[in-house]
């Protein structure tokens, strides 16, 4: 008879490289939380049991009936054999069955390739989450500690009275670990699982001298512990405020004005200090006709007004400037803010 069509071909493309790494990270933070789910010893135990019992690579069925998998401690084995639900009418354990025993001596782990954690129980930024309280927008910083690497050793045994059942399960184990390791997903955290050794324990007589095969598979889970009690959620600043203090008082003029008169010669010296207003006014005490503009320093323009009328604008005086007594004289200059502007007016008194 010709074989039928194969209908279970998986044609969905698998993500690889950076996209696969991002997919793993998204899986760690799945289930509606911004923090990774915690991982404890019991979580790794439950995931390992489910891996042996339900994973399609390892689950074993005989004559359409699934082979039961039980998780035991060594101390509970005798007690369990008396109350186990998978027994015949004579209260004898039915074969085949699979047992899982986890060794209680948890060792320091190799999950981080033998590297040690940074000392100090520090936490590290995992994610920054925007927040909104209806008024202000902010950011919460989610921080997690470094995971603590641990190695858990499991002993998986199959008990059967038929060699073909033993061969089938052994074949499944060998195929699952043909790439040195396989991964189990503990609360979204992928962890490597190694097959350490395979041993034969068929020469035992704990079942009323019944002849049966027993094979033990030792597996090591390279896991880590991540306790959610150590997580931190820190509200950060929701705004950055810059303050600038401004002096509302106007900058007062700081100009040195020295009028000197020697005989009928008058000399007016002006010094505009740095950071001062570039304008200064004074009332003339006597009449003067200015004919010279000298000693100009750091000043690019000089404007002279008499009674609010501009009589000079520039730096070269070619026409005499007449100032009468009681005239209001205003001097305005152009200079840089931090420079000191200076010049002199020289003339004859009237």
Number of strands: 21
Helix count, DSSP H or I runs of 4 or more residues: 4
> How much helix is in the residues?
10-25%
Unreliable segments of 5+ consecutive residues: none
Q: Supply the helix-strand structural class.
A: mainly beta
Order of helices and strands: HHEEEHEEEEEHEEEEEEEEEEEEE
Our Rg estimate from Cα atoms comes to 47 Å
Strand content: 35-45%
Average of pLDDT: 84
Descriptive account of the structure:
This protein is mainly β and 350 residues long. The protein is 13% helix and 41% strand. The chain is built from four helices and 21 strands. Strands 3, 4, 5, 8, 9, 10 and 11 form a seven-stranded mixed beta sheet that branches. The model has no long low-confidence stretch (mean pLDDT 84).
Brief sketch in words of this structure:
With 350 residues, the protein is mainly β. It has helices at 18-28, 41-54, 77-83, 163-176, and strands at 61-62, 65-66, 69-72, 97-102, 107-108, 123-132, 137-145, 148-160, 181-186, 189-200, 213-225, 232-235, 255-262, 265-272, 279-283, 288-297, 301-306, 309-314, 321-323, 328-334, 341-349.
Features:
mainly beta; 4 helices; 41% strand; 350 residues
Q: What's the layout of helices and strands?
A:
Layout: H1 18-28, H2 41-54, E1 61-62, E2 65-66, E3 69-72, H3 77-83, E4 97-102, E5 107-108, E6 123-132, E7 137-145, E8 148-160, H4 163-176, E9 181-186, E10 189-200, E11 213-225, E12 232-235, E13 255-262, E14 265-272, E15 279-283, E16 288-297, E17 301-306, E18 309-314, E19 321-323, E20 328-334, E21 341-349
Parallel strand pairs: 3-4
Antiparallel strand pairs: 1-2, 4-8, 5-8, 6-7, 7-12, 8-11, 9-10, 10-11, 13-14, 14-21, 15-20, 16-19, 16-21, 17-18, 17-20
